[in-house]
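step=encode ok
step=design start
structure_in=
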């Protein structure tokens, strides 16, 4: 036995023949190692929430006031400041570029926020529709139950009906008692 083990240890463990050219098979009992991605990953929900916040800010009066202040400061700086510190001269091409850039980012963000709002509205409308269907079904069920109770109530003995029946029985008993001879009453007891 020791010779066999020793012989095996002495052998070269590299595969030979057809097995040498086959690639190693992945193990199926273990998860794959994570792949390196070329493009960065992002959470679409987080990006959507951020775009909604930006769109909400862009739609406020505060944004318009700040944008107006920035443009006024920009223009005044580039007109009144010394030539050495001016960064955008009279036609204000750089300002136009910055406003165009801001608009090119603002429009898709606003559209994304609107699409997300449309999706939420669609879900809310679907939930409202289902709730209305349940309410209608409940109302129809209750209507059928009330109709069945009304129909069954016609067969239920009411207090007035029972009173009239008892009065009729009392009259019958009185008429029987008065119509019987006095001797028979004693024999019946």
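sequence_out=
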């Amino acid at each position: 036995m020791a010779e066999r083990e020793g012989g095996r240890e002495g052998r070269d463990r590299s595969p030979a023949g057809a097995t040498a050219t086959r690639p190693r098979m992945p193990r199926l009992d273990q998860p794959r190692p994570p792949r390196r991605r070329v493009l960065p990953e992002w959470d679409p929900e987080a990006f959507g929430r951020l775009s909604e916040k930006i769109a909400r800010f862009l739609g406020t009066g505060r944004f318009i006031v700040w944008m107006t202040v920035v443009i006024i400061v920009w223009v005044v700086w580039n007109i009144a400041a010394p030539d050495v510190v001016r960064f955008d001269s009279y036609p204000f091409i750089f300002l136009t570029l910055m406003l165009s850039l801001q608009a090119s980012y603002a429009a898709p963000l606003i559209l994304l926020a609107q699409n997300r709002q449309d999706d939420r509205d669609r879900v809310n409308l679907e939930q409202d529709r289902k709730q209305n269907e349940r309410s209608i079904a409940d109302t129809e069920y209750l209507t059928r139950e009330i109709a069945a109770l009304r129909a069954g109530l016609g067969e239920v003995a009411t207090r007035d009906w029972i009173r009239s029946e008892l009065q009729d029985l009392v009259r019958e008993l009185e008429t029987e008692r008065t119509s019987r001879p006095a001797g028979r009453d004693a024999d019946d007891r």
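step=design ok
step=annotate ok -> Helices lie at 2-10, 44-58, 61-80, 93-153, 159-179, 182-188.
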